[in-house]
Amino acid sequence: MKKIAFVTIILLLVFLSGCRDKPTPEDRLAEYISHWNKGDFAAMYDGYLTGKTKNAFPEEEFVARQEKLVEDLGISNLEVSYGKPGKDAEWDKKQPAEFDIRVKMETLAGPVEFDKPIRLRHEEQEKEKTWFVEWDPSYIFPDLEKGDDVDLSRTAAKRGEIVDRAGIPIAKNGTGYQVGIVPEKLDEARKADIAELLGTTAEAIDKSLNAAWVKPDLFVPIGKTAKNDTARLEQLLKIPGVAAQETAMREYPYGEALAHLTGYIGAISAEQLEKLKDKGYSENDQIGRRGLESLLEDRLRGRDGMKITLKKAQEGKEPVTVAERAPEDGETIKLTIDAELQKVAYDAMKGEPGTAASVAPETGEVLTLVSSPAYDPNEFITGMGGDRYRELEEDEKTPLFNRFAQSYAPGSTLKPVTAAIGMKAGTLDPAKGLTITGKTWQKDASWGAYRVSRLHPEAPNPIDLNRAMVYSDNIYFAQQALAMGKDTFTEGLEQFGFGGPIPLEAMELKASQISNEGTIGSEGQLADTSFGQGQMLTNILHLASMYEPFLTGGTMYKPTLLFDEKDGQVWKEGLLDPAQAETIRSTLRSVVSDGFAQSANIGDVPIAGKTGTAELKGSGEERGKENGYFVSYHAENPSFILAMMVENVEDNGGSDYVAAMSAKVHRYASER
């Protein structure tokens, strides 16, 4: 009986095993499509294709080709689905099971979507009987057949240009020259001269000349030169065998004057290409490398046209277009910048290390942003050699350093702001004179060795606000800061924008600070800060903006650089009342007419402003160096406020040296 029971159990298990559900065609298709949506082509090939399919299409053709197409065509968001059969569907293993599928994807050339039937057959592979998929290349694209090539072609979009407020191009799609050699005419002895003129090497020239396609009478490109670099081009063309062909090229008509603002474009790096590959960049693309060319890359770049085409293997068959996207040119971006005013300001600085900015006081529009000295961005477009780049890097005046993006101690140019805070707080009476004697002063012995110094101890007493501004009296402003207290003074500086970001769209500027910690820790620091020393640092654009309330009656506007951005947006308001603003304006005119900014006292152009000299607190070579400032405007027609700073003015007459440079800008503006 036990033996009969055991046999019965075994037979029952075999019966139940035979009744267990086998995978249906739908089960197998669902698994296959799951791998497809993940791009797991190896799994699709190994476990789901019919034997006939595998014989017709080796694994390399199925797996590697599809992986390459995904990468080359930028295929993303792949979504494959199928139409579900009815609930009572029955499957005959001797007949194919057919379903309808829908394939959707995004490509560099746009979306692709198609419907197609798919079949599964029941067969045995490696001792496993189940359902397998019939496949051919039409499941990649409907018209793709064995032997066809898939081609991706590109139609370049034009890069957007950057223009100034008058529509004058400052970064444009222009032309330059492709310099080349006709080998049979080359004077071999002059190869080194050619290399030096083009910033390359004789070895690089030889590499170009030894390319497989080169023939003695063909033009072989070896370098580029900017359109305005006529002297270099003339030298090159005098050498036997050298020729030039005009070619499309990015141009920067204002060269160094606007270099740190515009920046330049250059070949995309491998690192950038890897990061931006999903945006359709290719290894041959140019990309913004510095300045607005980089910061506005997404708007300037445009969108290349793309076309996916099937090139048919069968002779006589026309190519089939799978997807196509027309090119979209980049935006032309208009700035608030006045390019001619910027050039005058840059030239006025005579290549001295420094920076300048100007704003329209009634709107906040940025009219100039200067960093001096600078580089010529056209050199980067034509391909700068290593020696030339090292020359720029090692230049003691650091032309590659963008100074208008930095912050510096503002020196005495802060004094009008200190006065405004004191008047607003009610602690400074501009008509009340103080009696100040001697060259130095300290509140009491608790200050130890620290004393406030002034440059003009000959200033006659009593010293009121006007006289304090004319003689730029540090002691007067230190005493006024002490009278208002550090909390009131700190709060006033914050109301003028210290300690917060400069709200300028498109540019990255370092914020102005009261101190490293944002607070004032001692009476000595309070005194120093009152005349723009201590740990105070100010950005040059912010400094120009801080003088707006003196012309607007108390309002400071957000600086704007993009012309289509709304101007006249209030940044800070109620900084002083109109009467107090008039008092400040009066003193700033006196600084020029009666004070020590005589280089700006040019008579026919009435200039008002404040000089400033900031002593560098560093050690070594920096110790004893001074940065000179002048913040100024036309006293009767203040169409702009100009803030200018020049480094190391201690041997050039101090801040009056900067006042003379600024006067040239005001004279130009009044005459045009």
TrEMBL record:
The keyword Membrane applies. Its main location: membrane. It is found in: Membrane. Residues 155-317 form the Penicillin-binding protein dimerisation domain. InterPro entries: Beta-lactam/transpept, Beta-lactam/transpept-like, MecA_N, NTF2-like_dom_sf, PBP_dimer, PBP_dimer_sf, PCN-bd_Tpept. Residues 24-148 form the NTF2-like N-terminal transpeptidase domain. SUPFAM superfamilies: beta-lactamase/transpeptidase-like (SSF56601), NTF2-like (SSF54427), Penicillin binding protein dimerisation domain (SSF56519). This is Penicillin-binding transpeptidase domain-containing protein. It comes from Bhargavaea beijingensis.
